[in-house]
């Protein structure tokens, strides 16, 4: 008999941290450079972005991490995290970096402070203190790095200080592969302390990069061979060891930017140098006035904006004010310190990053292959829409434009071109329903019904534009018209679980089998998509009601009811919802299976949709999750894990047991279980599930978890894995948005609806109460929830501005008004 749980023991640990939360300054402070993995931050909130690690590693790009990559980064390299935003200090032959890497000289003191859109690396060695402050200012396509040096000794000190970045030749894919061409195309130009990276300007004539300093340089380099040495590298560059650069000008090969300053600091003296890395795009293509000459006017204006410490300080204040205003729209005070910091700060911060990045650029996503995901971006919007609704609106229209006329859609698109990625194509049959999900969320948040009238192209062809409502209609219709033998939606290439490939290659006793076609076969069905269709189909029907499309709403509900019934019958396995039916009509996620008997996804989404709530099946399904899938580190995706490769299931069984989709703890769908528990009124269980993957609650196991303790990761190794509890793929994950939806709307119960805010919490009975400040449609709601009877669910009374109201739906306030709400549970 195969056990539902593996043989590997829980890795016991003592509390171990590598830093701490500074709630007052809204920072995570890292106390040692030797974190289990590089712990990073994202700089930028508009078009220019940088990733920076706690030791100064990382890279920069403009809008698109593949097509507009400014600096190089080598993934899967050893030593790890060598490329980045580097400052070297040569102090009489002792070479060190403020962030420890890449020289790795032991520092007397080290601190990294990751804040909201900025990072500060502070190192000290032999009485010299260096602070490297990095941020991307609002409204400009550049990164600012301010280096502040202080002589803390009683004697004058002479230092040689170097900056260093390695330029990427724009297209990161071509840069990493097309060496026969790229070794001949690199071009630079140096004007005083500005190094212009012009590669591709000869061809495109409309963009370039500039790496500058605000002080005269002693020397410079633009050739990597000259700065590092032909057989050297970033650990100990030849120029840094020599104490000077060679004023090299790169012609092809590997262009870099390096500044050198020979400085003397008096006792107690501080000096700052401001570096900037900027992207310049000229609005009109220009003819060269001479070969290789670029228009530097915009670069010079950019450099002038950050020439002084006062200007940089003002830019930092503007950035802080921006985040203060943004986060003030959703603030929690509960007395539960870890809950407050995640809801009010770090979870929302990560939601902004995932909205900007989708899955395109992290320390796990190279920025080359994926671009923006259709379903990813739709889900990311769920956690972001309350922050900047206007940007959410724009994103919905961009996503919808990658849809096809039949309602299906490209699975990914490039952020620079906004065109669908034909290399990946379409055929993931859950994609269309996510467009309904994010549009409905936008309407609940804003009440902006005009978005449904916006003309949106199909496949980015404006000649075939239709109102957004027609796109939603075709999304709904696509699922409704693609049902399988059991009345369940067809899965296509895959559904939310990209690795469950039921139509690709299958094996049956005595025969080989392959289904081909645009969606790779019309046979396999998904119970998960069925749950989606019921949940988001009902949201679509509600939109029809508000638009007075009465017959369409009724027709939609008839179709939804049929799929719901199929889910309760063909989709039910006796104690939980099945996952799917494969290409031969055999159930997946069933007690009939020898492995993979129960999956997490349908239990969460079906109960969230309300399926089986009245019949007891929802209760049974969640009980099965707790009994068969729960672990100390979260809920695993399936059990028992697949121990052999299954041709009829595809990639899911290609992973070793306990990793990723093969019984890993996929943090993205853990919130679905928590949400589902609140649907049934189980506040204690919902909060327990929430805490298991919440970074602030698992900070003490950082040596096991390994990824950043201030943001969510995509997956954690499951009980079948030798590294049980180890996380991977941090930052860019739908976990961020779904967890914020879970904790803000399902647990704390502040729910936007088409008609206003509803307050209907489902909390642990131990939570005595909390207050929420919530900006909604221009008004500010101050909501106080009290739990005097220690209940998990149930609203006893609601008062608004001192007057009692019936029910839990708050009257819609006018923009600019402030509303006082008191809610008593009982």
UniProtKB/TrEMBL annotation:
Domain Glycosyl hydrolase 94 supersandwich per the UniProt entry, residue ranges: 26-307
Superkingdom of the source species: Bacteria
Keyword vocabulary terms for this entry: Glycosyltransferase, Transferase
Gene3D superfamilies cross-referenced by the UniProt entry: 1.50.10.10, Glycoside hydrolase, family 65, N-terminal domain, Maltose phosphorylase, domain 3, mpn423 like domain
Every Glycosyl hydrolase 94 catalytic domain range: 322-749
Gene Ontology biological-process entries: carbohydrate metabolic process
InterPro entries, per the entry: 6-hairpin_glycosidase_sf, 6hp_glycosidase-like_sf, Gal_mutarotase_sf_dom, GH65_N, GH94_catalytic, GH94_Enzymes, GH94N_CBP, Glyco_hydrolase_94_b-supersand
GO MF entries: carbohydrate binding; glycosyltransferase activity
Presence of keyword Glycosyltransferase: yes
Record-given protein name: Glycosyltransferase family 36
């Amino acid at each position: 008999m195969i056990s539902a749980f593996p043989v590997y023991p829980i890795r016991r640990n003592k509390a171990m941290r590598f830093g701490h939360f500074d709630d007052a300054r809204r920072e995570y402070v890292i106390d040692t450079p030797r974190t289990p993995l590089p712990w990073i931050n994202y700089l930028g909130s508009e078009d220019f972005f940088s990733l920076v690690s706690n030791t100064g590693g990382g890279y920069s790009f403009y809008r698109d991490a593949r097509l507009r990559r400014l600096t190089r980064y080598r993934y899967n390299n050893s030593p790890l995290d060598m490329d980045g935003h580097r400052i070297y200090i040569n102090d009489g032959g002792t070479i060190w970096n403020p962030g420890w890497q890449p020289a790795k000289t032991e520092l007397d003191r080290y601190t990294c402070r990751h804040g909201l859109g900025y990072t500060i690396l502070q190192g000290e060695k032999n009485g010299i203190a260096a602070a490297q402050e990095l941020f991307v200012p609002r409204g400009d396509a550049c990164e600012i790095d301010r280096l502040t040096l202080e002589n803390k000794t009683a004697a004058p000190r002479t230092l040689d200080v170097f900056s260093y970045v390695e330029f990427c030749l724009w297209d990161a894919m071509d840069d990493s592969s097309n060496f026969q061409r790229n070794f001949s195309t690199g071009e630079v130009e140096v004007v005083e302390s500005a190094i212009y990276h012009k590669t591709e300007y000869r061809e495109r004539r409309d963009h370039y990069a500039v790496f500058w300093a605000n002080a005269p340089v002693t020397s410079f380099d633009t050739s990597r061979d000259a700065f590092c040495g032909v057989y050297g590298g970033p650990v100990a560059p030849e120029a840094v060891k020599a104490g000077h650069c060679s004023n090299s000008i790169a012609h092809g090969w590997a262009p870099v930017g390096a500044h050198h300053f020979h400085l003397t600091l008096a006792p107690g003296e501080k000096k700052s140098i401001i570096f900037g890395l900027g992207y310049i795009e000229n609005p009109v293509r220009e003819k060269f006035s001479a070969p290789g000459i670029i228009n530097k006017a915009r670069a010079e204006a950019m450099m002038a904006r950050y020439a002084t410490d006062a200007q940089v300080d003002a830019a930092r204040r503007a950035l802080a004010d921006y985040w203060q205003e943004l986060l003030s729209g959703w603030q929690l005070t509960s007395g539960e310190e870890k809950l407050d910091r995640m809801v009010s700060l770090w979870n929302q911060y990560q939601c902004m990053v995932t909205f900007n990045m989708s899955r395109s650029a992290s320390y796990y996503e190279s920025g080359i292959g994926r671009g923006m995901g259709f379903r990813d971006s739709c889900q990311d919007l769920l956690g972001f829409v309350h922050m900047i609704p206007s940007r959410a609106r724009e994103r919905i229209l961009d996503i919808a434009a990658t849809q096809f006329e039949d309602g299906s859609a490209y699975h990914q698109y490039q952020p620079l071109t906004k065109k669908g990625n034909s290399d990946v194509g379409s055929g993931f049959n859950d994609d269309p329903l996510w467009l309904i999900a994010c549009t409905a969320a936008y309407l609940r948040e804003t009440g902006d019904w005009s978005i449904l009238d916006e003309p949106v192209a199909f496949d980015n062809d404006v000649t075939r534009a239709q109102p957004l409502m027609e796109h939603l209609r075709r999304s709904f219709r696509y699922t409704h018209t693609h049902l399988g033998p059991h009345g369940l939606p067809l899965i296509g290439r895959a559904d939310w679980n990209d690795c469950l490939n039921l139509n690709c290659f299958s094996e049956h006793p005595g025969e080989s089998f392959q289904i081909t076609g645009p969606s790779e076969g019309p046979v396999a069905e998904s119970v998960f998509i069925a749950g989606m269709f019921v949940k988001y189909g009902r949201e679509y029907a509600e939109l029809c009601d508000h638009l007075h499309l009465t017959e369409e709403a009724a027709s939609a509900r008839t179709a939804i009811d049929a799929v719901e019934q199929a889910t309760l019958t063909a989709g039910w396995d006796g104690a939980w919802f099945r996952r799917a039916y494969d290409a031969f009509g055999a159930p997946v996620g069933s007690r009939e299976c020898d492995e993979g008997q129960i999956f997490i996804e349908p239990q969460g989404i079906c109960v969230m949709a309300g399926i089986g709530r009245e019949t007891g099946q929802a209760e049974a399904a969640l009980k099965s999750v707790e009994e068969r899938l729960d672990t100390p580190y979260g809920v695993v995706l399936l059990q028992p894990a697949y121990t052999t490769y299954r041709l009829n299931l595809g990639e899911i069984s290609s992973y070793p047991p306990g990793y990723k989709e093969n019984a890993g703890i996929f943090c993205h769908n853990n919130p679905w279980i928590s949400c589902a528990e609140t649907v049934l009124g189980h506040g204690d269980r919902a909060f327990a599930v929430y805490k298991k993957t919440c970074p602030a609650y698992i900070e003490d196991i950082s040596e096991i978890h390994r990824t950043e303790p201030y943001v969510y990761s995509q997956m954690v190794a499951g009980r079948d894995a030798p590294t049980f509890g180890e996380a991977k793929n941090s930052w860019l994950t739908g976990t961020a948005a779904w967890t914020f939806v879970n904790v803000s709307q399902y647990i704390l119960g502040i729910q936007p609806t088409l008609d206003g805010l509803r307050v209907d919490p489902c909390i642990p009975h131990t939570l005595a109460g909390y207050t929420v400040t919530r900006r909604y449609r221009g008004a500010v709601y101050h909501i106080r929830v009290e739990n005097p009877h220690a209940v998990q669910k149930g609203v006893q009374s609601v008062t608004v501005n001192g007057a009692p109201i019936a029910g839990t739906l708050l009257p819609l306030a006018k923009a600019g008004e402030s509303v006082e709400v008191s809610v008593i549970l009982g």
